[in-house]
Amino acid sequence: MKPTLAYVQAKFNEFNAKIFKGKLSPLPIRIGVSRTRLGGVSFKRRKVGTKTEFYNFKLTISQRFDLPEHEVEDTIIHEMIHYYILSSQLHDTSPHGKLFRQLMNHINQQFGRHLSISHRSTGEELQNDTHKKEHFVCVSGLADGRTGITVSAKTRIFQMRRDLPRYFRLQKMTWYWTFNPFFNRYPHSISPRIYLIEEAELEKYLTDAKELEYDGNCFKVKKQ
Ligand SMILES: [Zn+2]
Questions:
Q1: Between helices 69-87 and 98-111, what is the axis angle to 10°?
Q2: Model confidence pLDDT, tens digit, residues 154-209
């Protein structure tokens, strides 16, 4: 999806209420055309006595990238963390310093997000990553109706098949073998973890995948 202004505004309000407890003041939001950065918060600084104060914030989200919705959302939240730190007049150790990482890790844990400190990792490089690599992907139907994926390290697929249902409440698991570059963006997991994804979004990337079946001993490509 490519974000529109109405979409980003709605998401800003949603995440402000849900994640930031409504602490963020509204700010001008703009849809940009950057090819290198998905998002950014701009601001000015001024001296107030001996202190530096940040003010005049603007949030920009680029519409140049066609990304899965959860990545667009993660980008918006990432920028909202910057905005939260700056508008609270807090000084971090660096742009993605200690404070940023603390907040980010907290949000990832509390809300099942996959924010990263790199603007790049949700940006153009991902979209341009067309390198064909082998992936073993487990698609999980969670008990609450959501869909998640795990890209398993090849050496761990048996443990993963066994352990995922022990760590998560799952309704079903389907395994695929695929070379689709979409999955390059996920780490090849060696321990049970699940990345949430929209089912409809995921379907697009599984059209050329081979479904696998487990016969109690090994995985085989399922006969259609
Ligand atoms: Zn950042």
A1: 140
A2: 999 999 999 999 999 999 999 999 988 888 888 888 889 888 888 888 998 998 89
Which is nearest to 119 in space by CA: 148, 77, 66? 77
Query: How far does the centroid of ligand 1 lie from the alpha carbon of residue 77, in Å?
Result: 10
The span from the CA of 90 to the CA of 25, in Å, is: 16
CA distances from 8 to 31, 104, 108, 111, 168 (A): 8, 19, 20, 19, 31
CA–centroid distance, 95 to ligand 1, in Å, is 7
Q: What's the predicted TM-score (pTM) here?
A: 0.56
The one-letter amino acid code at 198 reads: E
**Residue listed under structure tokens 């939260």:** 84
In sequence order, the β-bridge partners of residue 220 are: 213
CATH superfamily of 5-126: Metalloproteases ("zincins"), catalytic domain (3.30.2010.10)
Helix, strand, coil percent content, the chain, rounded in steps of 5: 35, 25, 35
The domain spans of the chain are 5-126, 130-218
Q: 97 CA to middle of ligand 1, Å?
A: 10
CA of 149 to the centre of ligand 1 (A): 25
Contact 167, 220 (CB under 8 A): no
